[in-house]
Design a protein that fits this description.
heterodimer; A: 324 residues; alpha/beta; D-Maltodextrin-Binding Protein, domain 2; 2 domains; 6-stranded mixed β-sheet; B: 278 residues; mainly alpha; MetI-like fold; 10 helices; 75% helix
């Protein structure tokens, strides 16, 4: 190996280590989000151009949608995501495993409902005994909530010797899974719950009965710690845009619905009925605030579900004071 | 055992090492792998633990999963139980079904020319490609997993049985016929015993196909205690140590069963005089 070779290799290694985050300031911000109403700040912010405007013309916004926190976390681990809207379940798990992330704001609360197939006999949580229940992904926020509901009802999973089966199905695919009778119920984020309801399926638990009377975070805003350290201004600007997007949802819900619908249609190929979307929005609260107590309790539910062995110290990855 | 006769011909190429030497080389290899693994993770810290965990982290997952006593522990153990039950059921059905179809194909050439060709074609489709169809047809349940396992397992058996039957030396058929074997007695008394070594190779291929198909299907059809689900849970919760633990267990189980079948195969081949013991 010649000296030039060594230099080249080490330069390459250094570039790989830095993972595309340059100290000079990023020229691209890679944002992750899901096509759910609980991610409405992302959906409307993207459709309105709020984020791009806040980042300025020199920075390119590269927004990528994910089916669930699982795939997003993988992209995050691979260093392909700088900022993301994500549920507390995957965020806590990722942080617990040592991924360099910081929770910097809340985005939505509640907004998940339990829907049973219209032709099933399910009328209450207790009726889930012996049934097959879908969640967006194993280990995701709704999965953790569902496992807690089942425990409260004294029901056990088939994998733990009980008779309830929890199975991952992407929310946009639940209608087809219901039609094929592959699942009997689902705990889904909005607007998929309201959409299923509009198709004649039955709501068994609303956003308030899922957990804590509806006072729980469903979506958070996270940032890659190294990206935040290298680009504090960009993150601060994005946070302002996020706050603006949340405020917009409260200020002009009707206009926001149109924007959200356009994004959902583009991402999932499904147009959500306006009334269903309206109903879904009343069940979801958009806020930049984050209830730390609820988040800690969520981490405890995560342990209860068997996805982690201990509740992590939230102070190590929640940074709500990220401002400039 | 009589003393070996003095050799006049050149010594044959050694294909077997003494068992203790194989074992010691394998142990050295394992130590090397673990050493390099430790070096790039805990030693040099080339990768963050959420991308590539260290041997000790994976060991922690294995120990909690196999003999942990906490309320959520022991999941790998129940997963292994579930997966083994499923693969043995599927493999058992596949072997019976494959033997039947193989016999029919061996007995009737038109069937072999048509079905045999289709089966070879189907065999080239990765098992995971059948999972979406199985889910639609059977639902998100164990039957869908079994379907894929049986489908993948029975084809090698059927092809091996029919192939082995066709490769039975004509002399054996003639001898059998002279001794009065006809129809069923010819099949069970002459052809199948003669085909056994090749059939056993098919059974071993079928095992590895079935085991791989099982894990692939379990990955997509969760909700039943299975190693595939443990792998998926690890992935879903960013627990790479659990992912690696599952992969190691999948490899160990697959390897142990393959070794068992290989031993049976070797025994039969030696009994048939196809392999010489030193």
């Amino acid at each position: 190996m010649t000296r030039t070779h060594i230099r080249r290799v080490s330069a390459l290694a250094l570039a790989l280590c830095l993972g595309g985050v340059s100290a000079q300031g990023a020229t691209t911000v890679r944002l992750g989000y899901f096509p759910n109403l609980t991610h409405a700040p992302a959906l409307s912010g993207l459709e309105r151009g709020t984020f791009q405007k806040a980042l300025g013309s020199k920075v390119k916004l590269d927004a990528r949608s994910f089916v669930s926190g699982t795939t997003l976390t993988e992209a995050f681990a691979a260093g392909q995501i700088d900022l993301a809207y994500i549920g507390p379940g995957p965020a806590i798990n990722a942080a617990t495993r040592g991924m360099p992330l910081q929770i910097i704001a809340g985005a939505s609360e509640a907004g998940a409902v339990l829907i049973a197939r219209g032709d099933s006999a399910i009328r209450s949580y207790a009726d889930l005994a012996g049934k097959r229940v879908a969640v967006p992904s194993l280990g995701n926020t709704q999965d953790i909530s569902l496992r807690h509901i089942l425990k409260e009802e004294g029901l056990k999973l088939q994998t733990d010797g009980g008779n309830v089966v929890v199975t991952p199905v992407a929310p946009a695919d639940i209608a087809a899974a219901f039609a094929g009778k592959r699942v009997d119920a689902t705990l889904v984020p909005e607007p998929w719950g309201a959409l299923l309801q509009a198709q004649g399926h039955r709501m068994i638990g609303n956003e308030k009965t899922v957990w804590r009377g509806g006072r729980y975070p469903t979506t958070l805003l996270i940032v890659n710690t190294r990206f935040a350290q290298a680009n504090p201004t960009l993150v601060a600007n994005f946070l302002k845009a996020h706050a603006d997007a949340v405020a917009y949802l409260g200020r002009s819900p009707a206009a926001a619905r149109t924007l959200i619908n356009a994004q959902l249609d583009r991402l999932t190929g499904q147009k959500v009925d306006v009334r269903a979307l309206q109903r879904a929005m009343t069940r979801t609260r958009f806020t930049t605030a984050l209830d730390l107590k609820a988040l800690t309790e969520y981490a405890a539910l995560n342990v209860e579900a068997g996805y982690a062995r201990n509740v992590p110290d939230l102070r190590s990855f929640v940074n709500l004071g990220f401002k400039r | 055992m009589s003393a070996p006769a003095p050799r006049t011909d050149p010594a044959p190429v050694r294909t077997r090492l003494p068992r203790w030497r194989v074992l010691s080389w394998q142990l050295i290899g394992l130590a090397l792998i673990l050493g390099v693994w430790w070096l790039v993770t805990d030693g040099l810290k080339l990768y963050p633990p959420y991308v590539f965990p260290s041997p000790s982290q994976v060991w922690t997952e294995i120990s909690y999963g196999l003999w942990g006593t906490g309320p959520q522990d022991g999941k790998l153990l129940s997963a292994i139980g579930g997966s083994l039950r499923r693969v043995l059921t599927g493999y058992g059905i596949a072997v019976v079904l494959g033997a039947l179809v193989g016999l029919l194909m061996g007995a009737w050439l038109p069937l072999r020319a048509t079905l045999g060709a289709y089966l070879t074609g189907i065999q080239s489709v990765p098992s995971i490609a059948f999972v979406p169809f199985a889910i639609l047809f059977f639902g998100l349940n164990e039957r869908a997993v079994l379907f894929v396992v049986i489908l993948e397992g029975f084809i090698p058996v059927a092809l091996a049985v029919s192939g082995a039957l066709l490769n039975v030396p004509p002399a054996l058929r003639i001898a059998g016929r002279t001794l009065g074997a006809r129809g069923l007695s010819m099949t069970t008394g002459v052809l199948l015993p003669a085909a056994l070594p090749n059939v056993l190779t098919g059974l071993r291929t079928a095992w590895s196909f079935a085991w791989r198909a099982l894990v692939g299907a379990e990955l997509l059809i969760s909700g039943v205690a299975s190693i595939g689900e443990q792998l998926e849970v690890g992935r879903a919760t960013a627990n790479v140590a659990l992912v690696l633990a599952s992969i190691i267990i999948i490899g160990i189980i697959g390897g142990v069963f393959d070794a068992l079948l290989r031993a049976v195969e070797g025994r039969v081949r030696r009994d048939y005089g196809l392999e010489v013991t030193q």
